[in-house]
Amino acid sequence: MPSVPAVIGEFSVLPISVPPLPSFPRHVIHYLYVRRNTPKIPTATDARSLFLTNVPVDSTEAHLRALFASLVGAGRFESATFEDERKDAHSQSQSQSPIDVAQPAHVARLLQAHSSKKRKREGDDEAERAREEEAAARLPSTWTRPLRRSGSTAVVLLADEKSVEQVLRAIAKTHKTNKYPAWGGSDHLPEGRVPPLGSLWLRAHNRLSYPDREALQATVDAFSALFARREQEAAEVAKRLRNEPDEDGFVTVTRGGRAAPASRTEAEEAKRKMLDRNEKKKEELTNFYRFQLRERKKAEQAELLKRFEDDRRKLEALRVKRGKFVPDA
């Protein structure tokens, strides 16, 4: 086997031994690249976390826990966050839930426009009930664990900064001893075995692809009920918007047309507010830059000098005219 450098750039190279499997009866060496975690936006746990890239496609937190336990012993590893999990969390915080995607476009737009007001009125119990409804409306998963993208990354959180140093020293030691930790081993985990590799979890996926008919019917019923309820909510919102002008004085054209025109008084009031807002924006943007302030002051001084000269000429003309005036005897 060709020699591999212990360090490439800022990454420490960790060779891991992948044991032969019935589906692929050959011994393989896979390389993980590890460095201290230095994200663009620092967090409080960066000093005791490691950034991993080129993680195996069948990685789970239990596999990484077993790997780090074989390097520095049990009790040092706290958690692992994979690249796809970080992206999913970010996208869910900025988008709708998977249930909302199945809604008609007009329903999604109306509910999204009024979701902030609705969330303020809802309490914790109402929000919890909504989450339970969405969970019941989701189809059961057909995978016991996800399949990672090739070459993906993960962030591992350790117990303390000392654990980070110990892991990096242990990685350097593997290159000297040529004893590489085994991938998928559970000898260093007292709590039990890690999820199986190879075809076993694919076999479980094949079994989960055919869920129980009653469970599947219950999920479809829950989805249909949630779908109908959200359409009803959207219809009520659309009905309320038919007679309410917006801040620009316009009435929203909703599906199904309008029942009556907007009030002229409300429309004029909304138009007045719009004009006031535009005027305020102009005032805020006027003389925004420093050079604009200087130019404005120069223009004001020039205007004052011009007025002074005009007044002086007028006064001089009056004096001349008064000197030529001869009163009648």
From TrEMBL:
GO biological process: ribosomal small subunit assembly; rRNA processing
Cellular component per GO, a single term: UTP-C complex
Domain Rrp7 RRM-like N-terminal: 10-200
Superkingdom classification of source: Eukaryota
Coiled-coil portions: 264-318
Keywords: Coiled coil
InterPro entries the record matches: RRM_Rrp7, RRP7, RRP7_C
Ribosomal RNA-processing protein 7 C-terminal domain ranges (all copies): 208-327
Region of interest: Disordered: 113-144
Classification via PANTHER family: RIBOSOMAL RNA PROCESSING PROTEIN 7-RELATED (PTHR13191), RIBOSOMAL RNA-PROCESSING PROTEIN 7 HOMOLOG A-RELATED (PTHR13191:SF0)
Family membership: Belongs to the RRP7 family.
Protein name, per record: Ribosomal RNA-processing protein 7
Source organism (scientific name): Parathielavia hyrcaniae
Native organism taxonomy: Eukaryota, Fungi, Dikarya, Ascomycota, Pezizomycotina
